[in-house]
Amino acid sequence: MLEVEVSGLKFENPLILASGVLGMSASSMISAVKFGAGGVVTKSIGVRAREGHPMPCVVELPFGLINAMGLPNPGCEEFKEEIKKFKENCDAPIIASIFGGDPSEVREVARTLRDADGFEINVSCPHSDVTKKLEDDEEMIGDIVREVKKAVDSPVWVKLSPNVSSIVEIGLAAQEAGADAVVAINTLRAMIIDVETGVPILGNRIGGLSGSCIKPVAVRCIYELYETLEIPIIGVGGVTSWKDAVEMMLAGASAIEIGTAVMKDVRIFEKIKAGLKEYLTKKNLKIEELVGRAHRV
Amino acid sequence: MLEVEVSGLKFENPLILASGVLGMSASSMISAVKFGAGGVVTKSIGVRAREGHPMPCVVELPFGLINAMGLPNPGCEEFKEEIKKFKENCDAPIIASIFGGDPSEVREVARTLRDADGFEINVSCPHSDVTKKLEDDEEMIGDIVREVKKAVDSPVWVKLSPNVSSIVEIGLAAQEAGADAVVAINTLRAMIIDVETGVPILGNRIGGLSGSCIKPVAVRCIYELYETLEIPIIGVGGVTSWKDAVEMMLAGASAIEIGTAVMKDVRIFEKIKAGLKEYLTKKNLKIEELVGRAHRV
Amino acid sequence: MLPRMVEIKEIIEEGRDAKTFILDAPWLKGATPGQFLMVWIPEIGERPMSLSSSTSITVKRVGRVTSRLHDMKEGDFIGIRGPYGRGFEISDGKSLLIAGGMGSAPLAFLSERVNKFTALIGARTKDDLVLLRKFSKGELLIATEDGSEGRKGFVTDLIDEIEMKVYDAIYACGPDGMLREILDRAKELNILHKLQISVERYFKCGIGVCGSCVLDPSGVRVCKEGPIFRGEEVFDSEIGRYRRDASGRRVKYGNSKRI
Amino acid sequence: MLPRMVEIKEIIEEGRDAKTFILDAPWLKGATPGQFLMVWIPEIGERPMSLSSSTSITVKRVGRVTSRLHDMKEGDFIGIRGPYGRGFEISDGKSLLIAGGMGSAPLAFLSERVNKFTALIGARTKDDLVLLRKFSKGELLIATEDGSEGRKGFVTDLIDEIEMKVYDAIYACGPDGMLREILDRAKELNILHKLQISVERYFKCGIGVCGSCVLDPSGVRVCKEGPIFRGEEVFDSEIGRYRRDASGRRVKYGNSKRI
Ligand SMILES: Cc1cc2nc3c(=O)[nH]c(=O)nc-3n(C[C@H](O)[C@H](O)[C@H](O)COP(=O)(O)OP(=O)(O)OC[C@H]3O[C@@H](n4cnc5c(N)ncnc54)[C@H](O)[C@@H]3O)c2cc1C
Ligand SMILES: Cc1cc2nc3c(=O)[nH]c(=O)nc-3n(C[C@H](O)[C@H](O)[C@H](O)COP(=O)(O)OP(=O)(O)OC[C@H]3O[C@@H](n4cnc5c(N)ncnc54)[C@H](O)[C@@H]3O)c2cc1C
Ligand SMILES: Cc1cc2nc3c(=O)[nH]c(=O)nc-3n(C[C@H](O)[C@H](O)[C@H](O)COP(=O)(O)O)c2cc1C
Ligand SMILES: Cc1cc2nc3c(=O)[nH]c(=O)nc-3n(C[C@H](O)[C@H](O)[C@H](O)COP(=O)(O)O)c2cc1C
Ligand code: FES
Ligand code: FES
Q1: Are C189 and C93 part of one and the same domain?
Q2: What percentage of chain B reaches a pLDDT higher than 90?
Q3: pLDDT at D62 over 80
Q4: Is A93 helix (H, G, I), strand (E, B) or coil?
Q5: Sorting pLDDT into bands at 50, 70 and 90, what band is D254?
Q6: Which ligand does the CA of C51 lie closest to?
Q7: C104-159 residue pLDDT tens
Q8: Is B125 marked active-site?
Q9: How confident is the model over B23-42, as a mean pLDDT?
Q10: What percent of chain D has pLDDT over 90?
Q11: What is the pLDDT of residue C257?
Q12: Residue C63: pLDDT over 90
């Protein structure tokens, strides 16, 4: 009863592991599926190996997390193996999150990782120089999408930044360039300073805020996108309970990605699935009837 | 030991009541000063009386608040009296928060409220049609600042939105137009939907997120502005303790505004003052030495 | 606190224009008389309502939101947040309860908690008297402006029929003019400290952040430091002189409808 | 949890390249042996370190951050977050402790909590033996690769001098190769369930979110589900075969320096 189809991909349930959380290896993504995820997005992968930002790269807050991982990844050649291993062990769709400084770089990554079931182009990591400058560059985003679409046959999603004046315009640019879905949102650009020493805590100083505190911003972005876009929206940002997942779907999300909440509890997928089922039964609704329901009133 | 001077205005301490929180009448602003505020900013005032958005206009979250008041205010003619009454009873500076759809409207409000010690131009309320469209319009913001500067002699601050691609560019536009300081940040554009009914809770559907959860975004904005701007920055967003106030000053704030935290406790100003004093004593620092200290490392 | 959807378990007609809504909200059991809820009807609006018992509100049909509430049926759902605000301090001694119009609502709840009381209840006309049953365990005096029940006149006229000074605590809720008269009388008798009144102002947030309900000149928030105040806390206040409307404009008393 | 600045109360030199830092952090008293801290030197970096007692860490100078830590003095401050991770399950019976190199650190802490134990401690050379004093209340066997103290050879060679099977619990910490050998021996003797090992991987977040420390093929997070694992949980794992570096690339065992 939880099956959804998004941009031609079928998920056993709408809960997908978000990019960058545990997605560094096949084994951790397989374990997410074992714990109930309907699909997974990999860590964002670039052309070359990157170590990422210096540590500390996370700060835990009572209501969320600030991270500045800095897109560490082994490079697409090496990561090909992980996708292969995942697919050998798991039927759930695996979406490769990919990034790069220009369209040809991103295309190269996509081509190398073409075994993935779909692609999520990351143009929205707020603390990486590579992606930060793309986040509100509609033209460049359009170019990247077109290049990737030419290079692969599977669906292409674009992951949007909330750190822009109008997420809807960026979403429209992606749609016009041929994106099959948008993913909203990446983290909020944020920072924290230690008052004892006066030093910014994160090695990169600036990071991205995730977790329950950003959910109201994510819901707003999804709601706004749904008003204008025709392609599906995958919601992400601060989902920690079935209520959050339902709320995002009501706002317009066709599926949900979960990141930070996995930290405390990998079993979160099972828990949310159970809550979702109970809700649908009680309300006598089909899952697809949830999507965008808040716009009807 | 807590005295600060910002854009020529002297405050007994750097803690200022933020706009829109209790600032609807002289009496509530006087009581904020009685409870330790070094100054106050009024509710945002326009040319005509406005009732604001339909209720519900607030939703309380564990880590903050979403509000969609919709800039209710009695109009500048009527509000003149409140400023007069405040000044008859209180020596602390009173900053009139003012808004309008175009430069001449804002100028009219400023002129009517010229008894105020300073002005804070609100171009950043994320759920009011009037201000929402201004938030990233550098030209229009420049025009408004120039008009207001011509109309009044007292210092003019511009309150910036975090819901833009580059807060620094907006800050620069304000500075170039002659603003004496910038205030960062207003609320984050946000939304919440009731899962039982599928209805967006706020009467206006979309609102603004404030409170402790937005502090990491506010600190980042202040830090970025301090790197580029020459005029002072007043920090606001999620301050609930002396540590938060210190953190914002380390990031670059010359003074601090406090909004949502006043809800739970009007005595917050006294508490933060005590903490600040202890910190300065322990660290053997003057208050102005805090400002921007995190940039030195 | 998010609004929480609760079922209307029962609706009781109260006179002509009022209804009591009994809510399936067991967690309200700990509420104090005088506290209020913010009541939300999705897509329609949200309004402040005093608790008329630990799990009910009693609402007069006056405008958009209250009319819609009156159209609802048992089994329907509304959203509530609260209980909010400071309630009455309960006295062990002899209490005097004075209610004008819908002011009966919080005092009806209070009547469950005080030992011995006299209740002075006033309304425009017989059909506007609500919740009288709740006051029957004490001494009950009634006034209506048209004389259709009890003494003809205002509830404050009933004060002449009793001796205010003998009560250990005096509780009042009603229109500003009534409250002002009671404040004045209590002041004269030097018993302001015995008086607790429930104040109504325009509530937007209900949680002390927006400033819409603040009283001049002390700057207290009715929704947070109130809605129950001691006589001496508000004697000098705007009550009975003016109030503010939704935009914050001052409206002289007399121009404004009773809320 | 934010990093919390704590004072270094005391520094103890341990052989040639290691120091114990005793921290003024009384709230760590509840930590379990095997748990670790994320240790932050502002402007320099952050690194994972096992607790070598409830309020100390013992650190070998290997690179940028550990060198800087070694330069610090008593009275200086460092930031810590934690204690994190799953610690050892403490046995009531007879314990065998096997440490290679800096693996002595968590086992030194453990030695405070177990009753009767035998400790097998190995290092490259005499000067690399750390925290030996903590193991003196039990039976202590030493091995060095150059024979400068105790038996010449690897710590795993000491296993031949005792009877592994007689112990109720076996605890091990050290380089991957050593852990693999112990896993194999325990498997042979069918006592994998008695074995608990402390695993090191590249930690970035330390709290289970980044995926940098995950073990193949089970996908467990060393920082969260570990760093202490039962033998049967990790027998089939990558341990001793490969590990991942900071970028997530697999590095065959042997190519990587001991961490
Ligand atoms: C603390 C408190 C307790 C109250 N308890 C009760 C009660 O127990 N029973 C009862 O029937 N009524 C009570 N009221 C009054 C009730 O809130 C109003 O009757 C109601 O808001 C009218 O809403 P409406 O949409 O039907 O009318 P509208 O057409 O919106 O307004 C009619 C009049 O109601 C008043 N009003 C409207 N909105 C508000 C608001 N947000 N806050 C305050 N007044 C408002 C104004 O005077 C307005 O002119 C209480 C008010 C307050 C402040
Ligand atoms: C759970 C755990 C407990 C540890 N306990 C101790 C201990 O008690 N005492 C001790 O001396 N050492 C301990 N270490 C190892 C310690 O973290 C490294 O020695 C330290 O990180 C080296 O940092 P550096 O900046 O000095 O060296 P660098 O020059 O940065 O690196 C040198 C080598 O150290 C390792 N290393 C660097 N960063 C990390 C990291 N973030 N996570 C894991 N390994 C890293 C790598 O192998 C690297 O090649 C522990 C490691 C882990 C994972
Ligand atoms: C530690 C961490 C690493 C992340 N890395 C990536 C990444 O590589 N690529 C990406 O698109 N998003 C990344 N994100 C963002 C998440 O995918 C997600 O958009 C965001 O965290 C909001 O969702 P959440 O609140 O459920 O975590 C990362 C988030 C965290 C917390
Ligand atoms: C109820 C409410 C009303 C507000 N009204 C205004 C306003 O009229 N003008 C304005 O510039 N900011 C307004 N704000 C924004 C605050 O001044 C402040 O920028 C923001 O809330 C972040 O600070 P805080 O977290 O300390 O509240 C309002 C905030 C709240 C919560
Ligand atoms: S109603 Fe908002 S402060 Fe009282
Ligand atoms: S170090 Fe990040 S998950 Fe373990």
Answers
A1: yes
A2: 96
A3: yes
A4: coil
A5: low
A6: 1
A7: 999 999 999 998 999 999 999 999 999 999 999 999 999 999 999 999 999 999 99
A8: yes
A9: 97
A10: 94
A11: 37
A12: yes
- Under the banding of pLDDT at 50, 70 and 90, the label for residue B230 is very high
Judge B/A contact: 3 or more CB pairs < 8 A.
Answer: yes
Q: Closest-lying ligand to the alpha carbon of D70?
A: 2
Q: What's the C85 CA to ligand 1 centre distance in angstroms?
A: 16
Residue B256 lies in a domain: yes
User: Do D79 and D95 sit in the same domain of this protein?
Assistant: no
Percent of chain A scoring above 90 in pLDDT: 96
Looking at the fold, whether C166 and C78 belong to one and the same domain comes out as no
Measured CA to CA, the distance from residue A99 to residue A130 in angstroms comes to 8
Boundaries of domain holding B121: 4-54+71-192+212-295
Residue B210, pLDDT score:
98
Shortest-distance atom of ligand 4 to CA B18:
17
Q: Do D214 and A262 touch (CB under 8 A)?
A: no
Q: What is the end-to-end Cα distance of chain D in Å, rounded?
A: 25
Determine the pLDDT at residue D256. Answer: 41
The 3-state secondary structure of chain B reads CCCEEECCEEECCCEEECCCCCCCCHHHHHHHHHCCCCEEECCCECCCCECCCCCCCEEEECCEEEECCCCCECCHHHHHHHHHHHHHHCCCCEEEEECCCCHHHHHHHHHHCCCCCEEEEECCCCCCHHHHCCCCCHHHHHHHHHHHHHHCCCCEEEEECCCCCCHHHHHHHHHHCCCCEEEECCCEEEECECCCCCCECCCCCEEEEECHHHHHHHHHHHHHHHHHCCCCEEEECCCCCHHHHHHHHHHCEEEEEECCHHHHCCCHHHHHHHHHHHHHHHHCCCHHHHCCHHHCC
Within chain A, which residues score under 70 in pLDDT?
Answer: none
- Do D155 and D238 have their domain in common? no
**AA identity, residue A279:** Y
| A222 belongs to a structural domain | yes
Q: Are strands B39-41 and B15-17 parallel, antiparallel or unpaired?
A: parallel
pLDDT mean across residues, chain B: 97
pTM: 0.96
> How far is residue C107 CA from its own chain's centroid?
7
Q: What is the DSSP letter of D78?
A: E
Q: How far is C40 from chain B (nearest CA, A)?
A: 7
Residue A267 maps to a domain:
yes
- In this structure, the answer to whether residues D33 and D123 fall within a common structural domain is no
Which is it for the CA torsion A264, A267, A273, A278, positive or negative? negative
Which residue matches tokens 């008009």? B147
Q: State yes or no: pLDDT of D66 exceeds 50.
A: yes
CB-based pocket (< 6 A), ligand 4: B 18-21, 43-44, 65, 67, 69, 71, 97, 122, 125, 159, 186-187, 210-211, 214, 236-239, 258-261; C 209-210
Whether residues C208 and C161 share a domain: the answer is: no
Q: Does residue B258 carry a pLDDT above 60?
A: yes
The confidence score (pLDDT) of residue D258 equals 39
For chains B and C, what is the number of CB pairs under 8 angstroms?
Answer: 135
Q: Domain holding A19: CATH number?
A: 3.20.20.70
As for how many domains chain B has, the answer is 1
DSSP summary character for residue A269? H
- B43 and C211: CB-CB below 8 Å? yes
Domain shared by C184 and C234, yes or no: no
Give, using CA atoms, the residue closest to atom 3 of ligand 6. D208
Chains that touch A (3 or more CB pairs under 8 A): B, D
Q: Check CB contact of B241 with chain C, cutoff 8 Å.
A: no
**Count of domains forming chain C:** 3
Backbone angles phi, psi at D150, to 5 degrees: 65, -155
Q: Which two tokens stand for residue B174?
A: 């304000």
How much is the pLDDT for B296?
87
Domain assignment of residue D212, given as a range:
202-259
pLDDT value for D257: 37
Q: Please name the residue that has the structure tokens 């204008």.
A: A228
pLDDT of residue B33 exceeding 60, the answer is: yes
In single-letter form, the type of residue at position C63 comes to G
Residue C254: predicted pLDDT: 67
